[in-house]
Amino acid sequence: MSINSKGSQSSSSSGSNKSKKNWKSKDKKWDSKPQNSANQGGKPSQGDKSGKCKHCEKLHYAFLNGVLEEEVYVDQPDGFVVKGDEDKVYRLRKALYGLKQAPRAWYSEIDTYLSQCGFHKSPSEASLYVRTKEGVGTLIVSIYVDDIVYTGSSDEMMKEFKAEMMCKYEMSDLGLLHHFLGKGVTQTEGSIFIHQKKYALTLLDKFGLKDCKSVSTPLVATDKLKREDGSDAADESLFRKIVGSLLYLTATRPDIMFSACLLARFMHNPSEMHYRAAKRVLRYIQATIDYGIEYVTGKSALLVGYCDSDWSGSEEDMKSTSGYAFSFGSGAFSWASVKQHSVALSTAEAEYVSAAEATSQAIWLRFVLEDFGEEQTTATTVFCDNTSAIAMAKNPVFHQRSKHIKRKFHFIRDAIQEEVIEMLYCKGEEQIADIFTKALPKDRFDYLRRMLGVKSASTLEGSVKM
Fold first, then answer.
1. Dist. CA 399–CA 397, nearest whole Å
2. In this protein, which residues make up the domain named Reverse transcriptase Ty1/copia-type (predicted)?
3. Per-residue pLDDT, 466
4. Where exactly are the structural domains of the chain?
């Protein structure tokens, strides 16, 4: 730090900070301690097919390593005021926790260092870095703020990376990955199991349902939720907390993806019926508290997708719901349940829009897989249970049934012609994405849940204790 004369653009005496530029956002209190980065979500990824274990490292005071490019000044903190220079302020050379420029400065610092170490940053996923040595192997590194997860096909490269990082930064080696961003990871010889049991238990205790009676499905198949249902108004704040918590839980629980997304449509002025539906999802979590997704090693590294829709499933506006899921040899690792933006005039149109959304995701996944050496040399298969939608996608000629569909959805035809994806028909009974479009009866729900790779930890091979 350097001391400058205090002027009108310095920070206030409360310890907040400002750039010399006229920032419009509110100042944050200066804090020398790092904030906890846990409980931040993201969809799980399978990692490499080699079966190598995943390791984790924790950087201490990561933001303090970021070099600031802007001119930022702070008041002299209490207890560290320089005598005779009380009217001056500090100019920061490096970032502090609580500074709005700190995350960007830290990312720039770690990005520059990894690039100097020979890592290639994925252009499709900013937190993914890959280093390849011919004849030795590949090292894959993923960064989230001050948490680093890495794996690879070479033990030598992983040891070298750990030594380099511990030499450059102050950090702790946490060994094998067991917990990351609120998710638990159980590694066995033949699989990796990702779960959120601890978080789920916290939810049940938080909302007073720790000893509730459990149910076998998150929603009743025959019930249809709508905005105006005639029931009394519910506590909006409590309802939002429940739904927000459920949405985070979908990071490892695709079986509740549709339920959480459906409830999220009623965040404003929820009714007692909506609140009861949310509580039912929590009762389902109670019944499946130790469930997660298993990714099995040794499977073929082939990207496969499923897409489906529920035509006019919304009671208010008759819009459809799209759903898709992708797997990479075993359990699903990418999924979504999304309400379509426009009304579909037929089931074929609803399925066609759903297929276009799945195609967009498939293209991005192919980019990411290629970045760490799992290039898909053949077209990615996307299964659809509607033959009319498949015909519309494969026929680039103007069609009477598709002339009103927004042009952005027609890029699926180019993807098929360029052999990026291949749409194939599957029977409705085998359509995995059906679980993301509507509430299902128990037998159907259990079958599709197993197909997604969601299972209890007690069914894993070997001795597993969570």
1. 6
2. 58-220
3. 53
4. 2-181, 192-466
Contact between residue 140 and residue 150 where contact means Cβ atoms under 8 Å apart = yes
> Per-residue pLDDT for 401 more than 90?
no
Cβ–Cβ < 8 Å for 195, 186 = yes
Looking up tokens 């519910």, which residue turns up?
Answer: 234
Token digits of residue 333: 């690792």
- H/E stretch holding 394 reads helix 387-394
Q: Strand 88-91's sheet: what is its strand order? A: 2-5, 88-91, 72-75, 17-19
Q: Which CATH class is domain 192-466?
A: alpha beta
pLDDT of 414-460, one tens digit each? 999 999 999 999 999 999 999 999 999 999 999 999 999 999 998 88
Given a contact cutoff of 8 angstroms between Cβ atoms, the answer to whether 272 and 231 are in contact is yes
Tokens of 26: 């509110």
- Is the separation of the CB atoms in 348 and 395 below 8 Å? no
Backbone phi, psi, residue 353, to 5°: -65, -40
Residue 407's pLDDT is what?
Answer: 80
Please check the confidence at residue 233 and state whether its pLDDT lies above 90: yes
Q: Whose CA is closest to 310, among 262, 275, 250?
A: 262
Angle at the Cα of 126 from the Cα atoms of 120 and 132, rounded to 5 degrees:
20
Query: Mean pLDDT throughout 234-261?
Result: 96
Helix (H) or strand (E) holding 243: helix 236-249
Query: What's the length of the chain?
Result: 466
> Residues 283-311: pLDDT tens digits?
999 999 999 999 998 888 899 999 999 99
Helix, strand, or coil here: 174? strand
Helix (H/G/I), strand (E/B), else coil: 27: coil
